[in-house]
């Protein structure tokens, strides 16, 4: 059990938090929420031991194993994805390397040296089995699959992985290490809807302690059984998920407001007595007594949540045609050394004016490719992409905040938007609606937190008078109040929106329709059906061949196809191959167990030739089992399971 008491931290004259007390232990899954810049990351870094508090204590039992996932990771090279994840099981990894090294030495050893190597190999092999080494490797593969890694990616070098995928590798390593206490800072950033749903299931069943920072309401509600709110330098704990927190916080605030109002009335009554009898000698003692009482009074303060949302006054865009964008039989992909890699094939759907569209699906399935087709940044390999008449477009991507000028102030950076300051709108008022009030507009961009920079980039994007807004993961690094700002802004936006996000609450609030991008296809859904947003809870039915239409049902429709396919690639054909692969995989795993039992026999190592053959047989059995597991995972993904 980790306990903290009296924690306080300040930067200069600014106090982030004071008098923080909390407990973290088995079964406590705690979500830490609060505004950008309030000190959430600073607090968790104090708890895990990276920084020290100004005052207060953190007690960590000596045998407590803490695993920490930060927002930013150092670049990792020199290992494959799987090897990096296996660092989470360090003892198993070191022993596996020793077994591999001994196996290589075995072929070159002779005489007495060969017997010594065999003895060491046998001991290492036995120890590897005792600590569940083979089960750990299988668990690592399972975790990687759950986080969206294709089996072919497990052996890719870390140097080839983007920042988002490196973060997933770090998350997989943390889950594999199974610490007593997991601490995670924004774990859902860079995840897709499928991976978020999978992670929810893993963490909701986590037996150890868990502390995480997140802005995703649905994720918090599914995982947390306690909420810590950092607001106004104070941390307040609530029991329950996010929905329970909202109700309990309002009840607490109502009680605080009532108590503060009662105190204000009492103070006014005392002040009235003092004023009335201040100069009356017979009442001097009573007056002085009341003056001293007021001086000692601890005034009640209502910790109102920071509300950065205001009404939005967007520039009115010109009216576009009814058809904003249309894709007809579109195929898309990218040139490679081996030719052309096709990402999407036979995509057909229509975006109509005023109908907001959300794109969902696994990372790497083609959502960003689809956006690049809509924005004109990518030419289709085949088919037709057309935008309507009078369509003006603004695009926000995941790297938008990185192109801000650190040397400018918030106001100066915002004024770089064409037309700002000359269109009748007050730039300060507009920035205030995005949470930059008062002197905060004079802060340097380089001094802003990551979430504040994202908020500024969003303000710049939304200030342009366009009628088609394309947003790619706008909620990354945003806190809950900033997500509320974004939700209110998009709800008030007068144009058409195409949105990529893993935030299911935002999708439900903004989107009218979904396009599910998966396995080279784009499937249109009228409405926002839960079976698409929560794929791990229900199985989506097979899509039909009909064209998309704007109606009131949420029936899925094919917005793409894959052209002519061999009968072996049909759903029934894939199921048969999947069942066969599963049977073969089980048989291969049984062969591995037999080979392991053979290696565990001490008598084996009395005969070097037999031992060498047994080692080779074990390696072959492992390789076959791994190949069949990869085939099973590939077919499962192809089937959509």
- The geometry reads as flat
Average pLDDT over all residues: 80
User: Measured on Cα atoms, how large is the radius of gyration?
Assistant: 30 Å
**What count of helical segments does DSSP give?**
19
The helical percent reads 40-55%
Strand content: 15-25%
What structural class do you assign from the helix and strand content?
A: alpha/beta
Q: What are the low-pLDDT stretches, counting only 5+ consecutive residues below 50?
A: 538-558, 560-568
Give a description of the structure:
The chain is an alpha/beta fold. Helix content is 42%, strand content 20%. It contains 19 helices and 19 strands. The strands form four sheets. A seven-stranded mixed sheet has the order 14-15-16-12-17-18-19, sandwiched between helices. It has a six-stranded mixed sheet with strand order 5-6-7-3-8-9, with helices on both faces. α5 runs antiparallel to α6 and α9 runs antiparallel to α10. The longest helix is centred in the middle third of the chain and has 36 residues. It is flat. About 5% of the residues have low confidence.
């Amino acid at each position: 059990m980790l306990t903290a008491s009296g924690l306080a931290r300040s930067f200069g004259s600014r106090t982030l938090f004071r008098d923080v007390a909390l407990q973290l232990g088995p079964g406590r899954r705690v979500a830490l929420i609060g505004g950008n810049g309030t000190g959430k990351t600073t607090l968790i870094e104090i708890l895990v031991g990276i920084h020290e508090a100004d005052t207060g204590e953190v007690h960590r039992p000596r045998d407590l194993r803490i695993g920490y996932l930060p927002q930013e990771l150092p670049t990792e090279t020199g290992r494959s994805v799987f090897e990096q994840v296996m660092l989470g099981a360090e003892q198993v990894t070191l022993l596996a390397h020793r077994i591999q090294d001994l196996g290589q030495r075995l072929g070159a050893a002779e005489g007495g040296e060969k017997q010594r190597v065999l003895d060491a190999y046998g001991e290492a092999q036995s120890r590897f089995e005792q600590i569940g080494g083979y089960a750990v490797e299988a668990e690592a593969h399972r975790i990687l699959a759950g986080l969206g890694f294709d089996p072919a990616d497990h052996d890719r070098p870390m140097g080839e992985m983007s920042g988002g995928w490196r973060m997933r590798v770090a998350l997989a390593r943390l889950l594999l290490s199974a610490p007593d206490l997991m601490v995670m800072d924004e774990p859902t950033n860079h995840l897709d809807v499928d991976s978020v749903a999978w992670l929810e299931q893993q963490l909701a069943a986590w037996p150890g302690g868990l502390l995480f920072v997140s802005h995703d309401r649905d994720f918090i509600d599914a995982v947390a059984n306690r909420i810590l709110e950092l607001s106004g330098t104070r941390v307040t704990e609530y029991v329950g998920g996010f929905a329970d927190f909202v109700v309990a916080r309002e009840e607490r605030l109502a009680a605080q407001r009532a108590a503060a109002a009662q105190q204000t009335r009492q103070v006014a009554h005392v002040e009235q007595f003092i004023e009335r009898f201040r100069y009356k000698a017979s009442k001097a003692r009573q007056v002085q007594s009341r003056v001293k009482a007021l001086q000692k009074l601890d005034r009640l303060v209502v910790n109102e949540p920071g509300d950065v949302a205001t009404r939005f006054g967007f520039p009115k865009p010109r009216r576009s045609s009814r058809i904003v964008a249309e894709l007809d039989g579109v195929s898309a992909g990218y040139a490679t050394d081996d030719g052309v890699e096709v990402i999407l094939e036979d995509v057909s759907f229509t975006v109509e004016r005023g109908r907001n569209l959300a794109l969902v699906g696994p990372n790497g399935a083609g959502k960003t490719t689809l956006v690049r087709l809509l924005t004109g940044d990518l030419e289709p390999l085949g088919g037709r992409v057309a935008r309507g008449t009078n369509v003006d477009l603004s695009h926000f991507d995941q790297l938008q905040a990185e192109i801000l000028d650190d040397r400018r102030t918030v106001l100066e950076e915002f004024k770089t938007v064409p037309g700002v300051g000359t269109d009748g709108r007050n730039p300060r008022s507009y920035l205030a609606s995005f949470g930059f009030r008062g002197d905060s507009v004079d802060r340097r961009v380089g001094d802003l937190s990551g979430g504040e920079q994202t908020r500024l980039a969003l303000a710049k994007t939304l200030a342009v008078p366009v009628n088609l807004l394309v947003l790619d993961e706008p909620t990354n690094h945003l806190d809950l109040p900033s997500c509320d700002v974004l939700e209110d802004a998009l709800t008030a936006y007068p144009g058409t929106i195409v949105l990529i996000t893993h935030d299911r609450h935002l999708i439900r609030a903004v989107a009218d329709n979904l396009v599910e991008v998966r396995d080279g296809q784009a499937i249109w859904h009228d409405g926002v059906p839960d079976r698409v947003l929560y794929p791990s809870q229900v199985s989506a039915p097979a899509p039909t061949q009909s064209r998309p239409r704007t109606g009131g049902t949420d029936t899925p429709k094919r917005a793409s196809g894959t052209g002519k396919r061999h009968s072996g690639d049909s759903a029934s054909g894939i199921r048969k191959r999947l069942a066969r692969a599963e049977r073969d995989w089980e048989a291969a795993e049984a062969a591995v167990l037999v080979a392991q039992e053979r290696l565990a026999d001490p008598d084996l190592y009395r005969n070097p030739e037999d031992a060498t053959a047994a080692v080779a047989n074990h390696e072959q059995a492992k390789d076959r089992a791994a190949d069949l597991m990869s085939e099973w995972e590939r077919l499962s993904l192809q089937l959509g399971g």
